[in-house]
Amino acid sequence: MVGLSKGEKIFNYCNYVFMVLLLILMLYPFWYILMGSLSDSKLAVGGGLFLIPVGFSVDAYTAILQNSAFLSSLGTTLITTIAGTAIGTFFTATTAYALSKSRLRGGVFFAFIVLFTMLFNGGLVPNYLLIKELGMMNSLWALILPNAINAFNVFVMMSFFRGIPNELEEAAKIDGANDLTIFFRIVLPLSKPVLATIGLFIAVFYWNDFFSTILYINDKDMWQLQAYLRNLIENTSMAIRGGSGTAVTAQMNVSPFTIRMASIIIATVPILIVYPFLQKHFAKGAMIGSIKG
Amino acid sequence: MEQRRQKLTLHASLQPKTKMSKTSIFMKDVVRDKYLYLLLLPGLLYLLVFKYLPMYGVVIAFKDYNILMGVMESPWVGFEQFQRLFRTPDFMQIFMNTFIISFLKLLFGFPAPIIIALLLNELRNMAFKRFTQSVLYLPHFLSWVVFAGIITAFLNPVDGVVNFIIKAFDGTPIDFLTSKEYFRSILVSTEVYKEMGWGTIIYLAAMTGVNPDMYEAARIDGANKLQQMWHITLPAIRPVILIMLILSLGNILEAGFLQVYLLYNPLVYDVADIIDTYVYRRGIQEANYSLATAAGVFKSVIALVLIYTANKIVKKSGNEGLW
């Protein structure tokens, strides 16, 4: 090991400075929104918000959390996220497990059927018409089913299942277990890490989903949280610009400025909570996916 | 009895691969794996309904879709929808918008994760490195709705922090999101901001495969850090870079539907309207199903040609392509 040369020291120093600047750039917007959400609404409107809240108030949070439209959209999103994650993770696992067995006749063909959905898709209008013709418009199914299983997740799980030693299954077979019992009693319990990872990815998708509401839901009581948030942001922007659209915030009796920021924070917090778990395995998942893709 | 058994085994070993026995082995395997097929079935059915039926639905681009007749019964019209599409006065503009926005995103968004990955790779303080990575990956997991909210909060002409700074320096506030001049830059920079960290993962993984002895040898020969990156790290990750490049070229008409949809407004349609937003407005909002599907098909065909060409060029230049 040669000691660090002068040039290398300078490089390292610059590199750390660059990274710290990058970190500030990445973190500041979220910090700004958080501080804005905690500001006193009357004081904050005049500007002057940079690093710390202007005044202090949690009125925006209490106003949102008491708003019935917010609560119903949160309810919808909780249902779609939980149901979508459960359905998606389970059937991704069953599909991936069958495909992970190289002895399965026709396995290559079935894997290609899955792979092909990554290369080509029908596009917006045919997907929309499908949901329409299936009679799912304005139902929770339209928010849950179209995105439950995707090829990428199937392949990530498949490669995990291939790593489980075959001896375990063979031993179980000698004891008279069939493939179903092996899958439920042996494989699934051994696969908790990959189930958790894929489950979290799916959950994040459903939590963030906004466009399904725009496409398939007319009834405001069934809006997803992100659609509610989007509507709120549009309304408050218009209100800030001095136009109409004050309806949402007028009834809340807090300035649109802080309401908007608080609602962004509320929509983000659950992601932050699951983020450390998400991070544990996603590097591996992303790698497998990009090789396959 | 003994004799007969012998005869049977002899018979079987003489003709081990007749057509009969092949099918019977196949059937035996299928029966043996019946539970595996049972596990596979729901996933396959799902894909057939929710992925393959819409693929078939693409045929309405060649039909005059009538909502009462459905996909199957509507009359065929050949390429009429495409002709209609190309006669639409705005379509050329929309196509160019899509291409320009997406090209600019590629131009800035493609090298950014490579550069950041190279620099992250040089960090020796592991705790700091992990923390930086965590922060950089995070925006990928936040929705575009949240991002659009942050962007409008920052750029708002009345109380946005950017205009607050402009006003502090006695400038006139700028309404960025309704300005044709700034809109594309906002799209490109926010996209790069959101995805550059996540993009480093694949390159960082490829870099772990580089033998550390090579750096040591280079240092003894007097190579500085930049030379080491240029001559050791970059060549080592070149296959990954090329594959990512082919994939991005295939996505050159994916200008980012949700982002544009959430940020644009009629004042900037001239520079911001892309094929996907056009498909949404004409197709879903105005119920021009066949016309909008034709626009989608047009986009897919171009993407297919591009990814094919890119792969060919990469392979011609002596590198490994996608297939």
Automatic annotation (TrEMBL), chain A:
Signal sequence, start to end: none
Subcellular location: Cell membrane
InterPro entries documented for this protein: MetI-like, MetI-like_sf
Listed transmembrane segments: 16-34, 76-99, 106-128, 140-161, 182-207, 257-278
Main localization (coarse): membrane
Keywords for this protein: Cell membrane, Membrane, Transmembrane, Transmembrane helix, Transport
Domain ABC transmembrane type-1: 74-278
Cellular component annotations (GO), alphabetically ordered: plasma membrane
SUPFAM superfamilies: MetI-like (SSF161098)
Protein topology in the membrane: Multi-pass membrane protein
GO BP terms in the entry: transmembrane transport
PANTHER family cross-referenced by the UniProt entry: ABC TRANSPORTER PERMEASE PROTEIN MG189-RELATED-RELATED, POLYGALACTURONAN_RHAMNOGALACTURONAN TRANSPORT SYSTEM PERMEASE PROTEIN YTCP
UniProt record similarity statement: Belongs to the binding-protein-dependent transport system permease family.
Stated name of the protein: Carbohydrate ABC transporter permease
Organism whose genome encodes this protein: Aquibacillus salsiterrae
TrEMBL record, chain B:
Pfam families hit by this protein: BPD_transp_1
Entry keyword Hydrolase: no
Annotated keywords: Membrane, Transmembrane, Transmembrane helix, Transport
UniProt signal peptide: none
Source taxon at top rank: Bacteria
Subcellular compartments: Cell membrane; Membrane
GO cellular component: plasma membrane
GO biological process, one term: transmembrane transport
Membrane topology: Multi-pass membrane protein
Chain ranges passing through the membrane: 35-53, 94-123, 135-155, 236-264, 289-310
Span of domain ABC transmembrane type-1: 95-310
Main location: membrane
Keyword field contains Membrane: yes
Similarity-based family: Belongs to the binding-protein-dependent transport system permease family.
Protein's recorded name: ABC transporter permease subunit
Organism name: Aquibacillus salsiterrae
